[in-house]
Design brief:
globular; five-stranded mixed β-sheet; 6 helices; Maf protein
Length: about 180
């Protein structure tokens, strides 16, 4: 099994490796730089979902242009934020899996309240990653433990956070024919 990830971020690539390797021990996962086609700081569930889909479609196209003849999947992962009806800002992560037929499989999760010190700045048009990096004094948090790693003091990191959601999306593709087996 080959899986192409629409990102070169090690967190996203490693989350897909972790998600897939139990079912497919010989899985090969490779990341490619793709554009999400959405703002750097996605705001809203639908915008974030669209970013994941755009990345999955873009990496599928890259793989097809490279004339890769093996069976493969494209995966797009996108994190963003949304504000609920009570005015609380939450994180959201969308994963899109696309196969050679163009069939898409989506999952969503990793919702937790964004600390107000970060949410207020996002509302002022700043991006989460640089905000967190500045607050904690560490560069490129998004390619490491992520905000979840900071606020849980390492109890959960961003790779773990994304891996569970990616595993569900890959599982939906894997079980796509379940009705035929009844």
């Amino acid at each position: 099994m080959q899986i192409y990830v629409g990102s070169t971020n090690p967190v996203k690539i490693n989350s897909v490796i972790n998600a897939a390797s139990e079912t497919w021990p010989e899985v090969q996962v490779q990341g490619f730089k793709t554009a999400s086609g959405i703002p750097e700081q996605p705001i809203g569930d639908l915008v974030t979902k669209q970013g994941a889909e755009n990345r999955a479609r873009a990496v599928l196209k890259i793989a097809q242009q490279k004339n890769i003849d093996k069976d493969f999947l494209g995966v797009g992962l996108e994190g963003g934020v949304f504000t609920d009806g009570e005015g609380v800002m939450w994180t959201t992560v969308w994963v899109a899996v696309i196969d050679l037929k163009g069939d898409l499989y989506f999952t969503n999760g990793a919702r937790f309240p964004v600390p107000s010190i970060v949410a207020d700045r996002i509302r002022n048009k700043e991006e989460m990653g640089p905000i967190i990096a500045q607050v904690v004094g560490e560069e490129d948090i998004r390619s490491k433990q992520g905000m979840i790693g900071i606020i849980t003091e390492g109890f959960v990191d961003r790779t773990e956070e994304y891996a569970g959601i990616a595993k569900m999306a890959l599982g939906l593709w894997h079980g796509r024919n379940w009705l035929k087996n009844l």
